[in-house]
Amino acid sequence: MNSENATIYDIAADAGVSIATVSRVLRSEPNVSSATREKVMQAIERRNYRPSSIARGLTSKITHSLGIILPKLLNPHYAMIFTGAQEEARKLGYTMSLFPWSSLDTDAYNPAAMLAERRLDGLIVCVEYLPPDHDELVHASLLALRRYMPVVLIGCVPPWYDFPAVSNDNAAMMRQVVAYLNGMGHEKIAFIGGVQEDKDPSRRDVGYEEGLRDAQLPYIASYRVYGKGTAEAGKAALDEMLKGLKREYWPTAVIALNDLVAMGCLEAAREHGLDVPRQLSVIGCDDLFCAPYLSPALTSINTHQQQTGARAVQLLLSGERRRETVAWDLMERASCAPVNTETEE
Amino acid sequence: MNSENATIYDIAADAGVSIATVSRVLRSEPNVSSATREKVMQAIERRNYRPSSIARGLTSKITHSLGIILPKLLNPHYAMIFTGAQEEARKLGYTMSLFPWSSLDTDAYNPAAMLAERRLDGLIVCVEYLPPDHDELVHASLLALRRYMPVVLIGCVPPWYDFPAVSNDNAAMMRQVVAYLNGMGHEKIAFIGGVQEDKDPSRRDVGYEEGLRDAQLPYIASYRVYGKGTAEAGKAALDEMLKGLKREYWPTAVIALNDLVAMGCLEAAREHGLDVPRQLSVIGCDDLFCAPYLSPALTSINTHQQQTGARAVQLLLSGERRRETVAWDLMERASCAPVNTETEE
DNA sequence: GGGTATAATGATAGCGCTTACATCATGCTT
DNA sequence: AAGCATGATGTAAGCGCTATCATTATACCC
Fold first, then answer.
1. Which residues in B lie closer than 8 A to residue A87 (C-beta atoms)?
2. Domains along chain B with CATH numbers
3. How many Å from the N-terminal Cα to the C-terminal Cα in chain A?
4. Dihedral sign for Cα atoms in the order A112, A114, A116, A122
5. How far is the C-alpha of A6 from the C-alpha of B116, rounded, in Å?
6. Nearest C-alpha of chain B: how many angstroms from A230?
7. Which pLDDT does position A1 carry in this prediction?
8. If we measure between CA atoms, which residue out of A297, A277, A274 comes closest to residue A345?
């Protein structure tokens, strides 16, 4: 195991050439005679030689390795982003390492030190919804990271950040969702968001408001609550909303920030004896792999996270400094239905 | 962005010492006077200097980076393993990179070349259930990888492989599951496995057989089918089983290889108009995050995958060459219930 | 106080590559 | 046949560290 590997000197000696020549064939430079190239290739083959990316990196300053920062892979949303990014990186000959970190808790473990020592060729940072007062803090962290390597952002990025980024047009997405539900006759449409609001126009909660306006529906504050974006939080949020309203005011549709929250909503609806979708339509976002297997199967938005991850890698490596938007698809399933016009109960 | 970083020479010059001394304080060697150490620390602070792990790796042969090979992160089972491994690695000062590869398709993209160039300090390989004729192939691939770095395996490892490994005692686990169901009165217990059987005694399907024997139940071949371990496959497998049997012979309980398969089973049961758990108990394995949110909530086995990942890292870095087993917990939820003794229909 | 163990520091040789730059055959030009 | 691009190879200087010596300063002993 781990027997000391051959070096470029060994190959040069074996092939009877200088290390510069070996290096040339390794990097497939043009000016090498085919006879020499052949000799070298054979020596490489014979010793099963692989150039050390470490040594290469020291000299050439490029390490062919990227990093990605995200809160947690256990959330399939991030697993999709990671997968998309990782696959794209691999295709381009890059390795991808994970540095878990949530932009929500800026005080916790900070990967900056570890990142600074690794000489990565680039870094992708998944930014979570930020409470208003976190904007500055997170921005400072990002600037610090950028001192060491190029950075591309993914997610809900405050508009004033001067970073290349890939995201969905969340507001437009939510406007479409509201229109979709309204098209089925829903007028009492609730929204269960993530952390508390701020004024970022790219946010989903803002899109929800705009959607109501487009549909000429009143904005009812009680229909809009916030949670932590988890299933438990989603369940608690809907539960509280229902408990706080007389039955006649209960919403007929609820839009969840993401599928985890939607799962919690389904659970809460079940506990309140609400039939989904007959009495309550539920729509999620992210289209997690389990969405079709919930009951009822969850209508959701496929946000093409893998593509988002892949694009981020492309931006990173191309050096283009711009913001991009990825399309989405409404996945119609059983959890949303036209509003029930028969008398309830 | 990416302004050329300070080097050890810059720090040495700033602090008025030699690079050897700077290196000493970096590695917190004892023989440095506190005055000198202080000077150096200040220079480091002032220039915001971080030693290059690349250069370090070249000299010291240790790169503080590990790799992990697994089929796909989109399967939460692997996301859990990765997370456990990654977190443990981070705690120990190591970075973790992902190399996707399934031991099932040995012919597809092979990460060996990329791995050989990276001078990783170790590699974790998640081995999937192997069809009999794959044993040798995969073993050869693993030996090839071990030429470059230490390897620790996770998962269902053929007993004759001479590699350190971490896994569950799958057979014992399945024996317990059969006993659990039998204890609720079930006698017609089906099993939906992964790839076709072989004789590996650590496998879940073998444990299923043993469990039946322990309970003095007959082994009925029609109750045991195989799929690909996905939700779709699970659904198709149960569907076919039911279609192939007269209703009176339908199993009253089904054990799924994992939660994905179990999700498929729930779906199939729904389509066949079977009430779970009144007419059919379903039990999964892995305890995915969505298990409690399925309906009915899925009874499953928590196999502590994160812990498995963490242990693998510990074995890797400690150099211990042995096999380990991780405990599991039965998570009782609503999808399993005592067998229904009333007349059906 | 001369001699010796010990702590503190410096000089320097790699680690395994890439990359100017130098060298040396070739073949073509005129 | 002298002159010169051009192609093919070699030489050697780093890249930013670690690690082994060698060297010097400090302390301690009889």
1. 100
2. 8-60 (1.10.260.40), 65-168+306-325 (3.40.50.2300), 170-302 (3.40.50.2300)
3. 71
4. negative
5. 12
6. 11
7. 39
8. A274
Burial (Cβ within 10 Å: 0-12, 13-18, ≥19) of residue B210? middle
Nearest CA in chain A to B118: A53
**Chosen from A4, A48, A54, A315 to mutate, greatest number of chain B CBs within 10 A:** A54
Query: What is the tens place of the pLDDT at every residue in A295-337?
Result: 999 999 999 999 999 999 999 999 999 999 999 999 999 999 9
Cβ–Cβ contact A213 with B under 8 A = no
What's the Rg (C-alpha) of chain B? Answer: 26
Kindly provide the residue ranges of all beta strands, DSSP E only, lying in B239-331, ordered along the sequence.
Answer: 253-256, 281-283, 300-302, 323-326, 329-331
Protein residue ranges contacting nucleic strand C, Cβ under 7 Å = A 4-5, 7-9, 19-20, 23-24, 26-27, 49, 51-52, 55-56, 58-60; B 16-21, 24, 30-33, 35-36, 55, 58-59
pLDDT given at position A198: 59
Under the banding of pLDDT at 50, 70 and 90, the label for residue B137 is confident
Instruction: Using a pLDDT cut of 70, give the percent of chain B over it.
Output: 95
Is residue B288 within 8 A of residue A318, CB to CB? The reply is no
Q: How many helices (H) and strands (E) does chain B have?
A: 12, 12
Asked whether the whole model's pTM tops 0.90, one would answer: yes
pLDDT value for B200: 63
Percent of chain B with pLDDT strictly greater than 90: 82
Length of chain B: 345
Give the closest residue to B198 by CA, choosing from B143, B259, B135, B154.
B135
Nearest-angstrom CA–CA distance, A266 and A268: 5
Cα–chain center distance at B56: 31
pLDDT per position as a tens digit, A1-32: 345 689 999 999 999 999 999 999 999 998 89
* CA-closest candidate to residue B47, choices B97, B105, B6: B6
φ/ψ bin of A64: left (φ > 0), alpha (ψ from -120 to 50), beta (otherwise):
left
Look up residue A265 and give its two tokens: 């909503």
> For A118 and C10, how far is CA from C1' in angstroms?
28
Measuring CA to CA, which residue among B118, B10, B3 is closest to residue B67? B118
Nucleotides of chain D in contact with protein CB (under 7 A) are 7-12, 14-20
B98 close to A (CB below 8 A) = yes
The answer to whether B65 and B58 are in contact (CB under 8 A) is no
Query: What pLDDT does residue B108 have?
Result: 66
User: Does the CB of A293 have a partner CB in chain B at under 8 Å?
Assistant: yes
Residues within a 7 A CB radius of strand D? A 16-21, 24, 30-33, 35-36, 55, 58-59; B 4-5, 7-9, 19-20, 23, 26-27, 49, 51-52, 55-56, 58-60
Handedness of CA B191, B194, B196, B198 (dihedral sign): negative
d(CA B241, CA A53): 52
Distance B65 CA to C19 C1' (A): 28
Contacts of B118 in chain A (CB under 8 A): 53-54, 65, 95
The two three-digit tokens of residue B192, written as one number:
């939906």
Q: A46 with A14: CB under 8 angstroms? A: yes
B63 CB within 8 Å of a chain A CB? yes
Share of chain A above pLDDT 70, in %: 94
Q: How far is A218 from chain B (nearest CA, A)?
A: 32
Pairs of CB atoms within 8 A across A/B: 153
Residue A265 to residues A183, A258, A274, B96: CA-CA distances in angstroms?
A: 22, 11, 11, 36
